Amino acid sequence: DAKTTQPPSMDCAEGRAANLPCNHSTISGNEYVYWYRQIHSQGPQYIIHGLKNNETNEMASLIITEDRKSSTLILPHATLRDTAVYYCIVRVNYGGSQGNLIFGKGTKLSVKP
Amino acid sequence: NAGVTQTPKFRILKIGQSMTLQCAQDMNHNYMYWYRQDPGMGLKLIYYSVGAGITDKGEVPNGYNVSRSTTEDFPLRLELAAPSQTSVYFCASSQGRAGQETQYFGPGTRLLVL
User: What's the pLDDT at A96?
Assistant: First the structure.
């Protein structure tokens, strides 16, 4: 699986958009970009994933650059409950031994009032 | 649906003791995973299973054993607890089909080995 690089920490004001970057310059053509988050030592929570098109769901938007070497997770209106560690993971999209998620250290997002 | 459940939530073991961490899911998922997370670090895969009766090693399997006799349950066994196994253990499951690889995690079991 391709390696990802994320800033160790970011701050965001409550109500503003939080933009979390991720570099994955060695991503392969069949690897997806996944985002998970972990709130205060709870189990990780799936947020969103995509291959090459931008994606949006009820939690967030995922913007992937045209060359797929980087992406940005956008939380449109951050709340205090969005304070968490956010993990960007790239991997092929099937289970078994290829299905395990390789977690780096992620970005610790602090949403401040 | 309860999703993925784990018991116990917290346990203290003495060196050399054994225990089983329980994991169950009610989503009829084929794939199940055990991860461990050390303080300030990401998760590392211990074992995984692609279906009942089938298990395989992950990145850090030493000191652990698993079994998968049913689709729902995936217990993790520690035979001789060591201080290095102090960690938070997460169980996860996924559908296991292409395009449906979202993993759902349990709340975790905190284990302290003294």
Answer: 53
